[in-house]
C-alpha cells in the first residue's frame, strides 16, 4: 500500500530534548493508520533527497529552540514566510540539515511535495541521553497536540 503521508521524526538521540521528534514518531507508530509512513531520522542529511522523489506529502516533527514554554507545539507549511519559526528551527541541527536538503532538491529540479513542520519547543538540547524531566512530564500533552495537528494536515 502506498503511503498517503510520510511523518519523519528528526533529532539527535545524544542531545537530550533534541530527540523529541524521534520519541514522538515511536509513540505515533503504535496508533496511526498504515497509510501513513512513519520513520525516525536521527541524523538528517543528503539521504533525505529520496523522500522527495514521490509526491507524498511529508510532515517533519522536530525540536525547536526558542523562548516559548517547553512542550509548546508550533506548525508551519514549507514555503510560508514565518521567519521567526524558521530561525527557531535552524537552531536545531537536524532541522537545519533538512532545510539544506530541501533547497538542494529544488536546485536539482525535484518537484517538491507539500512539506509541513511540527516543532516542539525545548530548552535542553545539549549533550546527554533521554528527554529532560520537564519535557518527559509534558510528553502526553505534547503527543495529544501533535496528533491533532497531524489529523488536521492529513484531512486537507
Task: Characterise this structure.
The model has no long low-confidence stretch (mean pLDDT 84). The two termini are 20 Å apart. The protein has helices at residues 20-28, 83-90, 93-107, 133-154, and strands at residues 5-10, 36-41, 58-65, 73-77, 115-122. It has 156 residues and is an alpha/beta fold. 35% of the residues lie in helices and 21% in strands. It is built from 4 helices and 5 strands. The chain is globular, with a radius of gyration of 14 Å. The protein has a 5-stranded mixed sheet with strand order 2-1-3-5-4. The protein has a single domain (5-154), classed as Rossmann fold.
The name of the CATH architecture is 3-Layer(aba) Sandwich
Morphology: globular
Separate helix tally: 4
Along the chain, the helix and strand elements come as EHEEEHHEH
Unreliable spans are none
CATH topology: Rossmann fold
Number of strands: 5
Beta content? 15-25%
- Helix proportion of residues, in percent? 25-40%
Provide a brief overview of the structure:
The chain has 156 residues and is α/β, with parallel strands linked by helices. The chain is built from four helices and five strands, in the order βαβββααβα.
Could you outline the blueprint of secondary structure elements for this entry?
Layout: E1 5-10, H1 20-28, E2 36-41, E3 58-65, E4 73-77, H2 83-90, H3 93-107, E5 115-122, H4 133-154
Parallel strand pairs: 1-2, 1-3, 3-5
Antiparallel strand pairs: 4-5
Amino acid at each position: 500500500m502506498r503511503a498517503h503521508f510520510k511523518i519523519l521524526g528528526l533529532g539527535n538521540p545524544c542531545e537530550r530534548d533534541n530527540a523529541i521528534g524521534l520519541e514522538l514518531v515511536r509513540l505515533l507508530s503504535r496508533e496511526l493508520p498504515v497509510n501513513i509512513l512513519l520513520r525516525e531520522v536521527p541524523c538528517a542529511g543528503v539521504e533525505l533527497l529520496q523522500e522527495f522523489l514521490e509526491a507524498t506529502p511529508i510532515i517533519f516533527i522536530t525540536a525547536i529552540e526558542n523562548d516559548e514554554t517547553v512542550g509548546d507545539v508550533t506548525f508551519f507549511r514549507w514555503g510560508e514566510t514565518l521567519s521567526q519559526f524558521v530561525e527557531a528551527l535552524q537552531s536545531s541541527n537536524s532541522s537545519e540539515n533538512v532545510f539544506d536538503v530541501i533547497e538542494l532538491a529544488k536546485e536539482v529540479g525535484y518537484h517538491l511535495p507539500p512539506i509541513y513542520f511540527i516543532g516542539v519547543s525545548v530548552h535542553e538540547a545539549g549533550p546527554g541521553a533521554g528527554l529532560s524531566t520537564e519535557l518527559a512530564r509534558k510528553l502526553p500533552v505534547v503527543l495529544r497536540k501533535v496528533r491533532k495537528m497531524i489529523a488536521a494536515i492529513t484531512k486537507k
